[in-house]
User: What shape does this take?
Amino acid sequence: MMMKTTTTILFTILCVSLFQFTASAQKQEVLLIGTFHFANPNLDAIKTERFDVLAAKPQQELENIAEKIKAFNPDQIFVEWPENKQAGLDSLYQMYKAGTYNQYINTKYQHTKQFASFKEDETFQLAFRAGKKANLKTIYGIDYNIDMPFDTVMNAIQSAKQTQLKNEIDSVIQTNGAATNHKRKTMGLTDLILDLNTEASRNQNAGFYLQSINRAGSRENFAGAYSVSEWYRRNLYMYALVQKITQPADKRIVILLGAGHISLIKQFIALENRFKIVELKDIL
Assistant: This one.
């Protein structure tokens, strides 16, 4: 009886171990790429100087990164584009693949505020470039825009007389802005992107919301916590679209978003334990 019980236990352990090994072996790979916004709309609290992504050297670097993404052989690429405007993204991507994108943008948007975005944004400069090289039919937009007015948080801080907290936030904004501008003057595009994808950079980005913004407001006012929860909600919605669109047959996917989004997306991936994370530095 003891022999039979021991054998059953050993068999169960072996089955569990084999299941875990098989599940691990079958994990889909996800290449995470966090970027700054190439078109630099300066809509964030931290104001930064423009980086000329259209210059010759950055263009060469983008070609190299796109070739490396092609070699990664992705089945899907996800970008920071409104999920409810997929049809527009599809149309632009088809023009890009056909070689008529720039002509269309120059004709339709040259004298508008949108022109710089259509010419410089990472969706078109990197995702479209890599998608075309990888012969992908579609680039998927997964952004779910949620209004997060920074002024509301700052007003709550002022009303609660949280002077120290305000000084902390102002200091972070000033320090990070200066550091970012210095890097953009002294580093190439590839190094800038790699720098944004370090663990330290991601932790600093995600940590700011909890360390500072979450504390905003009096004990009866949760403007700060609400703002942080909306930030998490936006990213959860984005990740939900990745989960829904990615099919079992997809072996490798790319998620290309603003670096702040990637810092949370990586946390979600770790908790779900569905994907094997691949970093940009691993393929360059």
User: Anything to note?
Assistant: Residues 58 and 189 are 6 Å apart (CA to CA).
